[in-house]
DNA sequence: GATGAATGAGCTTTCATTCAT
DNA sequence: AATGAATGAAAGCTCATTCAT
């Protein structure tokens, strides 16, 4: 049972792009390099993607889709809001730690885009953001979270914090365990730093 | 008594670049456009900068230097750690809110760089990061902050959170006040979300 | 049955380059001029040649190859050494007299190159030089030539002499017949000037 | 008693150019490099030379003038024609062997010029060529040389032969003694190769 | 659908030359 | 006369995209 509606070459190109982008960065990656990596002709790329930039955005949307699916699978209603938040952070960190190419692309290459692309990315991230919002609101409702914070602001602070931790780990050369940061990160989100 | 050692044209080019980068993004900005904006000949750029990328990094370092100076001026030892942290957030948000070109360049264009450049940027950011670290450590010492959190992790979470808030505000089209987010942001950093 | 392994465009570009180089000189010939002359796009040049200089060296090697083939066809073992030498001079002079573009490129443009390129050219000339050496050695063996001269020196003196005669004829504006110089030239090589 | 009518800087620039041209070749030598080598400002060059090419031709003419003077000094009427020819070859080889920078410029860089410049060089070489012609004619008159050769052709063959020997020695990396070639060279010119 | 040769617009960078001081 | 900062034209080369096969 396969759920993929797109032809194999579509995914082959995306996987090639993932590798090439991760190695060279978006702007330094030639379409012909991606084609070679994917085992197709240069022209074939343009049967599946309108322009080079489309490869980048499609890559992101596919990968994000996979991630969101993993988040959805990883969460369930029995969990407390805190547990859910921790699960989200766990998946976020471990998925990127386990797929270094993907980490490069999401943390570095995907930022190499102009404002329009950034907006599109923001749109694609929406589902993930909403997921965090839902957790925050659930926590508010069941009394495990404070009720006097702005959900939209805090979801940015939480996402931004995690994002920075991943980027910093990546740039440092992955010298330490990223997943080991899950517990202290959630601890900060829950209690802050005030004594 | 002027502290600027560099010739006027150096700064003219940087200002031109700031505007052009903000409008078009780094990769879509031609050197000749920057030259025209700065009121110099194309070749003149190369008397002051080795290559195009150098304009971007120099721009960043100059602007960051100005910011750090503003942080330094804005802080004093009478402040509590919390007040200092709030001041940092205030300056961070208000400076970028007050200089939309700079905001574009720092939040969008500067990310358009490969890993090596990102490392260089990380290095330049060090002074700002250290400033946040110092505040955290001061808070730990004087008892106003908890002592059981990792300074290096929390500084990333704080910086990343603020950074994401700025980027989100920018991408949204600056539809709301960025400085209005200072108090709730600091509130989150201090108390977290746990009830 | 065609012996040419290279695509037509390869030769079209070389012929275009031959014309453009002869008219303007190597350094004053733009790649785009050559492309137009060859009836291809600028970029096509770079599918067949790595860089501009490669066009010059390839041109030289192709043309020299043709020349050497003509030398080989023109010579046979029945000839005396003197007849062979005369034949070489005849072909050398007549080929260049009959192809003024080629003459310009070999005598003028090809010298417009730095030491490294000159070495490469020297290497390519090797086959021609060897051919002269073989004639000299044959003459020594069969007794028609003296045996007390240095083959390697004399081949330089002979080649240099012919080369200078061609260049001089070219610079003078081809006001006289180059092939008419064959007999007196060979006469000098054979007998010298001593009475 | 100084015979130089030109200011010191004129010669300083020429000496700088000699060094820089020899090291990098004409086309790869920047005017600013020559200025620095000569210890003058870039603009100063243009007080003494109209354009870059003028430096090359002036250099050649000055140096050739010195050479011709040396030839004139080295020759005297007591010499036989053969002795004179040998002296010319001796000076030609030894001067270039003793001044490697000059050798590079005359044998390699000076050839890097278009047809117009080549004509000008030919004109400047005239005095040297005439000198060889005079020797040939003297030999014809006094009976030491044959009378049935064309002076204009033979002077080319002699000059071209010597020139090629020098270039070959230079390109080979000066691995052997150039002056050691004087005797066998003259021997070839006098007797040819016929047994 | 697939190919890959061909295209040609586009841009950074160099450097000979100028000219205000 | 001397300077050297400034100029800006010029061109080699790349590479995303097309299209005939």
UniProtKB/TrEMBL annotation, chains A, B, C, D:
Residues 30-49 bind DNA. Residues 7-67 form the HTH tetR-type domain. The keyword Ribosomal protein does not apply. Keywords: DNA-binding. Gene3D superfamilies: Homeodomain-like, Tetracycline Repressor, domain 2. InterPro entries: Homeodomain-like_sf, HTH-type_Tx_Regulator, HTH_TetR, Tet_transcr_reg_TetR-rel_C_sf, Tscrpt_reg_YsiA_C. The keyword Transport does not apply. Pfam families: TetR_C_4, TetR_N. GO terms for molecular function: DNA binding. It comes from the Bacteria. PROSITE patterns: HTH_TETR_2 (PS50977). PANTHER family: ACREF/ENVCD OPERON REPRESSOR-RELATED, ACREF_ENVCD OPERON REPRESSOR-RELATED. This is TetR/AcrR family transcriptional regulator. It comes from Paenibacillus sp. SYP-B3998.
């Amino acid at each position: 049972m396969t759920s993929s509606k797109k032809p194999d070459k579509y995914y082959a190109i995306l996987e090639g792009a993932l590798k090439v982008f991760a190695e060279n960065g978006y702007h330094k990656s030639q379409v012909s390099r991606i084609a070679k990596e994917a085992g197709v002709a240069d022209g074939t790329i343009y049967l599946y993607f309108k322009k080079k930039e489309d490869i980048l955005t499609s890559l992101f949307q596919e990968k994000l889709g996979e991630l969101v699916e993993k988040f959805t699978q990883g969460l369930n209603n029995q969990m407390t809001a805190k547990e859910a938040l921790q699960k989200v952070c766990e998946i976020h960190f471990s998925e990127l730690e386990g797929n270094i190419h993907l980490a490069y692309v999401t943390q570095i290459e995907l930022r190499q885009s102009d404002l329009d692309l950034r907006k599109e990315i923001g749109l694609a991230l929406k589902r993930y953001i909403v997921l965090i919002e839902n957790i925050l609101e659930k926590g508010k409702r069941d009394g495990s979270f404070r009720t006097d914070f702005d959900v939209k602001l805090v979801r940015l602070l939480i996402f931004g914090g995690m994002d920075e931790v991943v980027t910093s780990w990546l740039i440092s050369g992955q010298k330490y365990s990223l997943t080991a940061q899950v517990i202290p990160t959630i601890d900060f989100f829950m209690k802050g730093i005030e004594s």
